[in-house]
Amino acid sequence: MKNRTLGREGLIVSEIGYGAMGTAIGYGPSDDTESIAAIRQAHDLGVTHFDTAELYGWGVGERLLGNALAPIRDQVTIATKFGFTPTLGRDSRPEHIREVVDNSLRNLGVDTIDLLYQHIPDPNVPIEDVVGVMREYVQAGKVKYLGLSNADADTIRRAHAVHPISALQNEYSIFARGVESLLPVLDELGIGLVAYSPIARGFLSGAVQHRDSLAADDWRQRVAWWNPENFDANVAIVGELAKLAESKGATVAQLALAWVLAQQTDIVPIPGSRSSARVAENIAAADLVLTAEDLARIAEIAPDGGIA
After folding, report:
1. Can you tell me the distance from the alpha carbon of 192 to that of 268, in angstroms, rounded to the nearest whole number?
2. Catalytic residue flag (residue 56)
3. Is residue 247, in this structure, part of any structural domain at all?
4. Does the pTM of the predicted model rise above 0.85?
5. Which CATH number characterizes residue 50's domain?
6. Does residue 216 belong to any structural domain of this protein?
7. What is the span of the domain harbouring residue 135?
8. Cα separation of 247 and 297, whole Å?
9. Pick the catalytic residue: 27, 56, 117, 137?
10. Is there a domain that residue 296 lies in?
11. Which of 51, 112, 113, 153 gives 20 to 30 Å between its CA and that of 13?
12. Res 26 pLDDT > 60
């Protein structure tokens, strides 16, 4: 697999990464053995960038990922995040950042976190103070690169003025285009984009299920694409995308990932799956080349993303 560069500080990662949220929370029951096999399969197929967060099980997800990657730690980059509370409040107070980052180092079983993100802005703590604490860990050699997630343009600029930001992590897919308004700022400052949910939380997987089939605690229960008034129309969009994918000998998930890769050379999608077979399918998207005509057809099928 080819590599891509995020930011101007030297962070080099595989062009498709692995998002580990689903190994701990969000998408129904998980099996650790299956998840570890999927993570190691991803690496075997060329993935070198793996993403987790404190939020993903409050240490459970980090420990699982650290265990899976321990034999190959020197061959991969690991990203994690801070900023939430167990009730999904926001907490980026300096003392809390230090507590979480120290816990993350222990949970992952590493001496250094390759990429540390603030997971979500905290309106009660100036971003300058947040990045100031993050910078302390860089200076101490415990963090290599800094990132932000779910941040707006002003926050990105202010953060970058304190210490170079290498990556912004935001949702981005054929169905979710909101981050496109931030691309000029990222280009100006030389910040890469890590795209989470690039398969639209599974809606573009080719196996989307009706909301009634999802577990009660499945995070997709709260996503408007699954609302009864939107679901059938979104399924119809996926049907048209699937026709295009089939014409190229690909799945709709591969088409979705190839679309993200085709937008800019400093965008890295991080699909996640607990299935080794699905991981292999996702990674094969790196070999799918979309023409200008293909991209135009996708724009025609889903001009405004998913219906929400």
Report:
1. 8
2. yes
3. no
4. yes
5. 3.20.20.100
6. no
7. 3-201+260-288
8. 12
9. 56
10. no
11. 153
12. no
